[in-house]
From TrEMBL:
Species for this entry: Pseudaeromonas sharmana
Domain M23ase beta-sheet core: 361-454
Compartmental location: Cell envelope
Span list, region Disordered: 187-229, 342-367
Cofactor(s) this protein cannot do without: Zn(2+)
Hydrolase listed as a keyword: yes
UniProt-recorded name of the protein: Peptidoglycan DD-metalloendopeptidase family protein
Ranges of residues in domain Opacity-associated protein A LysM-like: 103-180
InterPro entries, alphabetized: Cell_wall_metabolism_enzyme, Csd3_N2, Dup_hybrid_motif, LysM_Opacity-associatedA, M23ase_b-sheet_dom
Major localisation: other
CDD domains: M23_peptidase (cd12797)
Compositionally skewed regions (Polar residues) per UniProt: 201-213, 342-353
Keywords: Hydrolase, Metal-binding, Metalloprotease, Protease, Zinc
Domain Csd3-like second N-terminal: 235-349
Amino acid sequence: MNRFLAPLSKITEWEPPIPRQHLYAILMLAGFSVASVTLLPSPTELLANNPISVNSEDLSADAALADIPAADTEYVTVPDHELLGNEANLVDGLDDDTAPEPQWLDYQVKGDDNLSVIFNTLNLPAKTLHKLLEVDIQNSLIRLKINQKLSFLIDQNNVLQQLAIPLDGDRRVLFARQGDTYVSKIDGNVQQSSDDDSSDTVSKPVQVASTATPAKAVNAAEKETTKKPVAKPSRVIKGKIAGAFVVSARNSGLSNNQIHRIANMFRGRIDFRRDLHKGDGFRVLFDKPHNDDAKILAVTFTISGRDISAYRNADGQFYDESASNFSGGGTFMRYPIPSQRRVSSGFSPNRRNPVTGRVQPHNGTDFSVRVGTPVLATGDGVIVKATSHRDMGRYVVIRHGGKYTTVYMHMSKLLVKPGQKIKQGQKIGLSGNTGRSTGPHLHYEFRINNRPVNAMRVDLPMNEGMGGKAKRQFLAKVREYKRLMNQAG
Ligand SMILES: [Zn+2]
């Protein structure tokens, strides 16, 4: 009998194993996921410091209108392979064996944020947030502070692998995926930069494992973090373009992974399908003689006699010879249209089609503008698509530097061609009502690592100029790298 009673008495004594406030948050969030997420005001419970001021200038229209069926919008969900077609890969001939590595994505907490809005902005499911809250023993998620920087590691299947939240001092809370759930722990802040090429962090254990003896491996790993990037025996790989870039690159000794990295580095500057011709060449400088675990220090493409180079700086990012950021993607304008900013339908992963009742994510922001309004490129880049589609109408896809892509749909007239390089603010077409659209409007998407995110709320990359001492040190490194590459003949 006792055997049966014991559990019962336990139940009567049962108390929520988590703080009451926390429990409320979970319950509220559970409610959110049923209703529309963006319509609700920020629950103050979700922010510890809450001098919340709503930045109405660019956000309220978006949030308030997100789920009202607008007269001028579209209810289509175009699969990615239709959007980019054969341009989906940066270069021809690199297949699935080089699946992109997960990338860190930063988000700075804004004044009018709450957790649902943040997850919505980054296109992460509410379910993921619930799972994190369940293991948030430090309450770090419900005590977010304005301007706090959250770092998300998201894989190509849109699954959150890690989330890092800085605490006071050097510590941080790290949530890591384990099976179908998450575990959280506090650790010392391993200085982690989202813009550094992620393979450095991701592949480190592999490097260690592949080295001969454990003792040596640890040594090598330690050295790597302390010594100057110019390691003594460096290595230069040289290649000439003959046919497809991938073939030439493989023939020169570059691995698929390295080809991927280089293509990513130069996206927005070189169109690998169209710019490279027979006789053009490339040089890649590595910090080690062995290919497997070597770090790329510099890359130069010589195209029609002209050099385009990228050099690794101490921060792990690549810059050109004038010290402007190569992998950062440059700067972006928030809006793709000159003045009117009427958002008729906002970004919404949970948008419901008013006719079918089905959830149909809205991957972009719709601007209600009259036909013929100039559509502007929001950043420098290369046009990869400028064509027509039955749902998207006349549309343009621009590949920018770093991990960014922008998409513009339903235009009446296109003013650019695939392969064309364009500047921020340049007119790429005129808005319209083509494709499956219910009224004149521009549908605009902002994508990071090809995942659509909320263009109106996401942190846009900033062009941090390198100054003073840092620049002098970088330029000295550039000279050294150039010397090493030229030495190779
Ligand atoms: Zn739209």
